[in-house]
Specification:
It is a single chain. The chain is an alpha/beta fold and 435 residues long. It has a domain of 203 residues: Rossmann fold, CATH 3.40.50.1100. It is 44% helix and 15% strand. Helix 7 links the parallel strand 6 and strand 7. The structure holds pyridoxal-5'-phosphate. The site of pyridoxal-5'-phosphate (PLP) has 15 residues, from helix 12.
Length: 435
C-alpha cells in the first residue's frame, strides 16, 4: 500500500519509507492510500476472537500488502503482550483501560508495534545494514513508551532527550534505568531545546552521512494506525456484555492521534455510533467544532499535561479523512473541554460514587460521557494512563494514597544513568559523531 501526504506536494511513499522517514518531504503527514473495510462477517463473530486475532485482521488491512502474514502475525502478537480490558464503572458507563502495558499508558501499543516493524525492515535489508538510531525528544510520557517499546530490539539504538529537572521522578526512571540499547540524554534546558536538538540532527548532512537517523514521534504511521486495534477489541468486549448498541466512545485528546485511529476504525466498518473528543483547557479542537475555524495557539499547562497541546498534529489527518467537510466531522464527533478544577472534581466524584480511580486524562473523557450520554446510549471512555503515573496530583485530589503498580515500582528501583548535555547543537552533534 502507498501512503500520501496530507499536504499533497510530496510523492507517494511505500510503507517502509513512510515508517523510516516519519514525515513527508512537504512536512505533511502520511495517510494510507486506501482504507479497506472489514467484511460484515468479521463483526458478526468478533466477540469470539482474541485481541491478537482481531488486531491481526485490522493490521492486515493496512500492512498486509507489504508484510507476509506470518511476519505480521508475529509483530502483532509480540506487540500485544498485555490486555486492554473494558471495566464497568457505573450503569451504562465503561472504561477501556489502556494502561496495562510496560509504561502504563496507551502509547505502549503504538511504540511497541513501530519498534517491531522497523526491526522487520532492518532485517529484510540484510546484515550489512548499519544500526538505525532513533532520536526522540520527550516531556515525559513519549520517551518512556518509545524507550521501552524499542528495548532489546536488535539493530536499533534509541537516544531519549529530556529536559533536566523537568520530568517527574516516576517518568524519568522509566527511560534512565533501562541501559542496553537505550541512552538517556539529560539536556540542560527545556523541552523545546530537546525538540530543537532532534530536529537539527535530522537536518545535519554530516551527521546523516555518519549514522542512520530516524524519529519515533506520534505522527509516524507505524505508531498511529495500530492504535485502532484496541477500539475493535473494546467493541468485541462490549458485544460480549450485550452493550454494543448505541456505543459512544470518548477519547481524551492532545495531538489527536488516538481518536484519529478510532475514526479510521469507523471507516473500516466498526459500529461506533459517535465519538466525543475530550480536551482540557487547551480547547482548540472544541473551538473548531463550534466555529469551523482552526486557531492554534500556545498551550497552557494543566494537570492532564499529556493533553497540553496548542496545535494538534493529527488535526490535518482528521480533516483529510473527512474531505475538509466541517459538517461531516461534526456528524461523527462532538467535543468537550474542562478546567483543572472540573477534572479534579470528576476524579473525586467518580472515586466516591463508584470506587473507580481515574487519572486526570481519563477523567476528562469520563466527565464528557456523564454529561453528554443520551437515552439508549452506552458510554466507553479511554483510561489512557494509570492514575499512579500522576500520583501526587491524584493523591492530593482524593486525599488518600495511590499505590504504585509493581511495574512502576520496579523502574523506581533501577539505577539511573544518563548523559549530561548542554542545549547547544554543536555539543550534541559532537557526542553523536563520537558514537
Ligand atoms: C499522549 C496522551 C494523551 C493524548 O493522546 P493523543 O493521541 O495525543 O491525542 C492522552 N492521555 C495520555 C495519558 C497520554 O499520554
Amino acid at each position: 500500500m502507498l501512503f500520501y501526504s496530507t499536504n499533497h506536494q510530496a510523492p507517494e511513499a511505500t510503507l517502509e519509507k513512510a515508517v523510516v522517514k516519519g514525515l513527508a518531504e512537504d512536512r505533511g503527514l502520511y495517510m494510507p492510500a486506501r482504507i479497506k473495510p472489514l467484511p460484515q462477517s468479521f463483526f458478526d463473530h468478533i466477540e469470539q476472537l482474541s485481541f491478537q486475532q482481531i488486531a491481526f485482521e485490522v493490521a492486515n488491512c493496512f500492512f498486509g500488502e507489504d508484510i507476509p502474514a506470518d511476519d505480521l502475525r508475529r509483530i502483532v502478537d509480540d506487540t500485544l503482550q498485555f490486555d486492554c480490558p473494558v471495566v464497568r464503572v457505573e450503569e451504562n458507563l465503561y472504561s477501556l483501560e489502556l494502561f496495562h502495558g510496560p509504561t502504563l499508558a496507551f502509547k505502549d501499543v503504538g511504540a511497541r508495534f513501530m519498534a517491531r516493524l522497523l526491526q522487520y525492515f532492518i532485517r529484510k535489508g540484510g546484515a550489512a545494514q548499519q544500526t538505525v538510531n532513533v532520536l526522540v525528544a520527550t516531556s515525559g510520557d513519549t520517551g518512556s513508551a518509545v524507550a521501552n517499546g524499542f528495548l532489546g530490539v536488535d539493530g536499533i539504538h534509541v537516544y531519549v532527550l529530556y529536559p533536566k529537572g523537568k520530568v517527574s521522578p516516576i517518568q524519568e526512571c522509566q527511560f534512565t534505568t533501562l541501559g542496553r540499547n537505550i541512552t538517556a540524554v539529560e539536556v540542560d534546558g527545556v523541552f523545546d531545546d530537546c525538540q530543537r536538538l532532534v530536529k537539527s540532527a535530522f537536518m545535519d548532512a554530516e551527521l546523516n552521512e555518519h549514522m542512520r537517523l530516524t524519529s519515533a514521534n506520534s505522527i509516524n504511521v507505524a505508531r498511529f494506525l495500530p492504535q485502532a486495534f484496541y477500539y475493535f477489541h473494546a467493541y468485541a468486549q462490549m458485544k460480549r456484555l450485550g452493550k454494543a448498541d448505541g456505543l459512544v466512545v470518548c477519547v481524551p485528546s492532545g495531538n489527536f492521534g488516538n481518536i484519529c485511529s478510532a475514526l479510521f476504525g469507523k471507516r473500516m466498518g466498526l459500529p461506533i455510533s459517535r465519538f466525543i473528543a475530550a480536551n482540557n483547557a487547551n480547547d482548540i479542537f472544541f473551538h473548531y467544532l463550534q466555529t469551523g475555524r482552526y486557531e492554534p495557539r500556545a498551550s497552557v499547562q494543566t494537570i492532564a499535561n499529556a493533553m497540553d497541546v496548542g496545535d494538534p498534529s493529527n488535526f490535518a489527518r482528521i480533516v483529510e479523512l473527512y474531505g475538509h467537510d466541517h459538517d461531516a466531522i461534526c456528524a461523527d464527533i462532538s467535543g468537550a473541554a474542562y478546567s483543572d478544577e472540573q477534572i479534579a472534581q470528576t476524579i473525586r466524584e467518580v472515586y466516591a460514587a463508584d470506587g473507580y480511580m481515574c487519572d486526570p486524562h481519563g477523567a476528562c473523557a469520563c466527565r464528557a460521557l456523564r454529561e453528554g450520554l443520551r437515552e439508549g446510549e452506552t458510554g466507553l471512555f479511554l483510561e489512557t494512563a494509570h492514575p499512579a503515573k500522576f500520583r501526587d496530583t491524584v493523591e492530593t485530589i482524593i486525599g488518600s494514597s495511590v499505590s504504585l503498580p509493581a511495574a512502576l515500582a520496579a523502574f523506581m528501583q533501577g539505577e539511573k544513568q544518563s548523559v549530561p548535555m548542554s542545549a547547544a547543537f554543536a555539543d550534541f552533534k559532537a557526542y553523536l559523531l563520537a558514537q
